[in-house]
Amino acid sequence: MMLCLCCMAFVSCETKEEEYTGNKFKSCIFQARPEFSEDILNLYDITVTYTAMDGTTKVMTPGEDGTIPFIDESTTLPATVKMEMKAVKKPTFDEYINSHETFDLITYLPRVEARYSTVAEGEKILYQDGRLEILGVLRETVLAHLEDLFPKMNFTIEGTFTKTNSGCDFIKK
What we know:
By secondary structure, this protein is of the alpha+beta class. It contains four helices and ten strands, in the order αββαββββαββαββ. It is elongated, with a radius of gyration of 24 Å. It starts with a helix and ends with a strand.
């Protein structure tokens, strides 16, 4: 009789453990994809300095397609990330403005996601930011639009992933 009860208790514990495995934390993920139109890239030099969750720092610039895509993932918490974007007028800024009649000033800023994944339930979004600025403008008004856009191309996002009971959280500084 005792042997039978022990077996039932063992099976019961196994079932309970399997039930909770699906909620188990797998990793935290930080992903960004700033994107810029050709006109923006002809007017500004843009760099992103990213300090990854493992403490390494990378400096990135837009590729030929105008994007700076990257993804960072970690299973170790707490994990801090820092993304700093800088835009600097190119020496040919005025010349470029004077040589065009219209401008396609499209930016996706900063297009950032912080999320975590679990073993069975997939990913949960913790933080998401991204603004779309589409400005088809004439030369007479381009400087005013660029003045509004410039601060948005110079920003810092910093935050820390911390463990919670259900997975993790992203605390933005």
